[in-house]
Amino acid sequence: MATVLYITAHPLNPEESYSLTVGKQFIGAYREANPTDEVVHLDLYKENIPQIDADVLRGWGKLRAGSSLDQLSEAEKSKVARLEEILNQFMAADKYVFVSPMWNFTVPPVLKAYTDATSIPGKTFKYTEKGPVGLLPGKKALHIQASGSVYSEGPLASIEMGFSYMKTILQFYGIETEAIFVEGTAVSEQAPFIKEKAIAQAKEAAKRF
């Protein structure tokens, strides 16, 4: 049995979101193909994801200096402990499905905060004399990304910083990563066709994921 983290980063519901619609179809097909696997849904807009702020940096610094968790301030303790929970859950999973829109050429802030929480030296990657090495090999991820224009190829590909960021950070951890793009939906007459094509692609991908 594998554990799949289904991580969504959109404040609306599937009826209002292309990315969530495709993600929902993917997960439905995945569950049908893998009935014994555990799928854990993390709606990042409903999760407590501390930003790496002064409390976190000071708390981590105190822990590295030998302090115990109980010796941290209440703010430091609560944020550091929550970040540890997020990290441990991420590391324990076998597969990851990220679902997000492209906002301002990249991922929503909550998804960036989530990757900040999981990018910890000695946990998801390590530094060596030959450079950084990912510590989560053998795991895989899928990123479902929706956008109004086409960014995966063509003249706008150079400014696509959503999936390119997710692929970079996940491969930094050693995680094999692929994508399904729901793109070009701003052309209203093509949007239904684009959505259905992405749904078909998602259902097919779910069988082999």
Automatic annotation (TrEMBL):
EC number: 1.6.5.-, 1.7.1.17
Keyword Membrane included in the entry's annotation: no
Cofactor binding description: Binds 1 FMN per subunit.
Pfam families hit by this protein: Flavodoxin_2
Key words, A-Z: Flavoprotein, FMN, NAD, Oxidoreductase
Cofactor: FMN
Family annotation (InterPro entries): Flavodoxin_fold, Flavoprotein-like_sf, FMN-dep_NADH:Q_OxRdtase_AzoR1, NADH:quinone_OxRdtase_FMN_depd
UniProt KW Electron transport keyword: no
Taxonomic superkingdom: Bacteria
Catalyses which reaction(s): 2 a quinone + NADH + H(+) = 2 a 1,4-benzosemiquinone + NAD(+); N,N-dimethyl-1,4-phenylenediamine + anthranilate + 2 NAD(+) = 2-(4-dimethylaminophenyl)diazenylbenzoate + 2 NADH + 2 H(+)
Annotated positions binding FMN: S17, Y18, S19, M102, W103, N104, F105
Flavodoxin-like fold domain ranges (all copies): 3-204
Subunit structure of this chain's protein: Homodimer.
Family assignment from sequence similarity: Belongs to the azoreductase type 1 family.
NCBIfam families the record matches: PRK13556.1
Reported function: Quinone reductase that provides resistance to thiol-specific stress caused by electrophilic quinones.
Protein name stated in the entry: FMN dependent NADH:quinone oxidoreductase
Gene source species: Paenibacillus cineris
Taxonomic lineage of the native organism: Bacteria, Bacillati, Bacillota, Bacilli, Bacillales
Recorded name of the encoding gene: azoR2
